[in-house]
Amino acid sequence: MAQVGLLEDNARIAKLCATMLQYAGHHVIVYEHPRECLDALMPERAGRSAVAYHPVASRALALLPVDVLILDLHLPDMTGIDVLRFLRANPRTQSLPLIFCTAASSSEVASALSIAPQASFIEKPFTFQELISAISSALSIREN
């Protein structure tokens, strides 16, 4: 199945979401803080060189640790919209499939979708089927 990144600061929601995704056969990496997620997806932000001198290392650097990212728009220290802007501004992550999983207002969701129009959206609280359907949809966009 897929490597799913989950940027969610609420530990109970993160655990529930991860459990659902693992039940569906996905591998889940939970990021509790925006900076942790951005550093994992964009190693050059974490102070590591984006330029690798070894061909194997440069191929490894080009690979993202996740196939899709579930992004909450309400986060500590940095908004989900700010995270989204960083992701879309970086060549490594600009085409990463995204799912907004949030209880944000419709204007916040509209703002996020204006930055990433191909992203999916599921509203909290969500069902197992809504979550799995959003993952399938996001992955099918990536394959096209």
What would you say this structure looks like, in words?
InterPro entries: Bact_response_regulator, CheY-like_superfamily, Sig_transdc_resp-reg_receiver. The modification 4-aspartylphosphate is found at residue 72. The chain is an alpha/beta fold and 144 residues long. The protein has a single domain, classed as Response regulator (Rossmann fold, 3-Layer(aba) Sandwich), CATH 3.40.50.2300. The protein is 45% helix and 16% strand. Strand 4, helix 5 and strand 5 form a beta-alpha-beta unit. The longest helix has 16 residues, at 128-143. It is globular and about 35 Å long.
Topology (elements, then pairings):
Elements: E1 3-7, H1 11-23, E2 27-31, H2 34-41, H3 55-62, E3 68-71, H4 80-89, E4 98-102, H5 106-115, E5 120-123, H6 128-143
Parallel strand pairs: 1-2, 1-3, 3-4, 4-5
Could you list some keywords that capture this structure?
Rossmann fold; globular; alpha/beta; 6 helices; 144 residues; five-stranded parallel β-sheet
